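dumping these here so i dont lose them again. two proteins, back to back, each one seq then structure tokens. dont judge the mess
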Amino acid sequence: MGKIINIPDAPKQLMKILLDAGYEAYVVGGCVRDFLLGRVPHDWDICTNALPEQMNECFADYHVIETGLQHGTLTVMVDHVGYEITTYRTDGEYTDHRHPDSVQFVGTLQEDLMRRDFTINAMAADISGKIRDFYDGQFDLEHKWIRCVGDPNKRFTEDPLRILRAMRFESKLGFAIEEKTEDSMRRHRYLLQHISAERINTELTGILMGDCYSTLACFPDILSVCIPEIKQCIGFQQNNPHHNRNVWDHTLFAVSVAPKDIYTRLALLYHDIGKPLCYSEDSGVGHFYGHAAVSRDIAEKSLRNLRFDNQTIKLVTQLVEAHDRTIEPRKPVIRRCLNKMGMDQFLRLLDVKEADYAAQAQIYGDRLHKAEILQMTDEIIAAQIQQKDCFTLKNLAVNGNDLIALGIPTGKTIGQILNQLLEMVMEGTIENNQSELLLWVKDQMREKENEV
């Protein structure tokens, strides 16, 4: 007996309505794949031979959203969750390499599955959970293969984004890409220039958030279509005793060992991208003076081109610019960093620096020193969290109302005094204690009165 999919009640309910009306109904695609992999499916998509107007009749008692009716898709809401239901179809020509010029509704499940991207996404299951697998998707799942349905050249010409989708599945699932599929990906990589930046953004994010080392290592030529500046980093030798990898190999190693935080991983993808433009030699030793600022500028332009949001661009470029700065493990220094960046962003910076160090040559003395800095910094932050140490005005033991109560008029003076108090607290010259802070302010007021 073959494997059985356990379909939840809500999609089963929708399938039963279609079946009772005399139509076919199957759950299809990613939900089948994820269930077979032991993962919890996020979406339960349904396909059917019912035409759009027939689906509307079947679900007249439900809230229906006409998601893409011209392509045979509508969304039926059950308990505030949407379930996409699509008529079996084949796609016409993709003259823009993005969308089919037309769709033709077809009568069989097999014809519908034939148009899908990869075999592992081209499986369906009936209401009893029995799998329909015409293109050996289960075989490829078991052997951890990513393989196109049918001719890979046709699949990637139809929608070149599938090239990045294959890379995302490789990174996310730890699968290998079948040889013919990989060859076709490389052959058609320049078609990615026809794909919207927003769609590339989504797939790139998915790649970086997986176990991405082998994907980055295998496909820099494809990534270079999306981020052209990568090309100059590939094979660029650093000729420096601190580095035993070229710029690109260093970059992909650093990205892959970093925590799976998108800001951190994007920062590491870009942190040395400006190095080839900054290279100089002194007695045969390579140097990259000012590369952090150049990398920041490249990152900002590239991220904007890829339509990342302003917050992401701000956080990533800040990390790129700061990645090479030495952090002195002293409380005043750490407090100022925390004041400028905030706790979450400063912790990301430490993660960026640690991944950067891990990807460098393991020079004992230098490595030990860097490790000590990171360890001491972590200890300082832990102590500050526990002690509720002060590095923002919000944590200062006095506020504007306290100063107004002392007779200081509202306006710029209030802010100036509060910032001066914060600076002294961060420096450690005064305790973050309300009585002490107000006493200092009173002393300053007396001095000014005496001067008058």
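---- next one ----
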Amino acid sequence: MGVPVPGESAERGTAVVIGGGLAGLLAAWALRGYAERIVIVERDRYPEGPVFRSGVPQARHAHLLLEAGHRALDELMPGAREELLAAGAVRVPMSGVRWLSAAGWLAKYESEVAFLSCTRPLLDHTVLRRVRAEPSVRWLENTDVVGLLGTPRELTGVQVRARGDARARVRELRAEMVVDASGRTSSVPSWLARLGCPPTPEERVDAGVSYASRMYHRPAGADPGFDVLYLQTKAPDAPRLGVVLPVEDGRWIASVGSMRGAQAEPGAAGFDRQLRLLRDPSLHELLAAAEPAGAVRGFWPGPGVRRHYERRAPRGLVVIGDAVCTFNPVYGQGITVSALGARALRAAAERHGGIGHRTAHTARRGIAAAADTAWLLSSSEDVRFPTTTGGPAGLGVRAQHRYLDRVIRRATVDPGVCKTLHEVMSMVAAPTALMRPAVLGAVLRGGGSGRPASP
């Protein structure tokens, strides 16, 4: 455990976590040993095993833990990575991804950087089982948080009520720390306004993304020559993408996504049409030989939103996961950023030795820093499409686009540049890695000349 900073008392009272999804579970785990009680307030009732639940509508779509994400998860929960692999999660090295970039197929090379691919229920259940065994965690399932307690300067708890019963008695839960992990639909901004807090600064970018997914049985003996196939969008004339990922029980999960104006029609016919409209026929051909293992599921996640609670928030508030920063899901960053945010929360508790106000302040800053790279990459890519609203603009973004275009062109023929690009996308290297002398020299010398890698 950490040593408190001089001059601060190490508060070890109650932490309330709003939302018991993955971000909330990781936040609760991060606080163990630093709070006497951790109360998770969850709207749903948890299923007994790794099955889909209504409270996580995005769970039926492709999910992955980038290299940075499963490193953070295993740091928080030693052995969790091995548990996932033993349960059927698949480790996919970046060299096992056949990636059709905007400039062509990326170069082939051997990679040590990998991501974990599995269904969201398997990931959630693995983490839930670990948190269930923690004696300092209490559970309020089938319960809604309906408001905050406190003042514009300091939160002192939350108001809760049994779910689905507007006449039920509202109870107060007092707490030294309130962690909002309630996801994209968080009500905390409106509850803060009700307390008289000024609006939290935020950024928005909306590419109008939608996507549809379907599970398939992987054909016996199938060896397409890659682990994952990813067909990327190409602005402005190719606003659709497709991906197939291996998951547990010998299945594939395939997702097709689109930007505003190119969304899929519902059902199997709409899904098949989207596959046919992709830039390359390889995904459609691959799935034509596979047997569907479920219905087509659609999802409209809404805009990407980044709320800057590190700039303005009452004492005692921490916001994590999608409640603080939501991304266009096509970049696969969300659960990795949640794991990095939980690690930042843990580091703050260790630094200050408890869950006092300084812990919350430090955690807000750490969680914001954990989202920086992902937000930069996703928001700046979204604005390439003319139908996108909001997001960064100006000469700096256009210069960034021009240089990144040259990097990607070079990555189709240069394994070293491709390796660095993958490290940045996997969030184990900062975007500045693309300006290292070796990469910069290769990009400026080659600029993408040469024959792109074959599929």
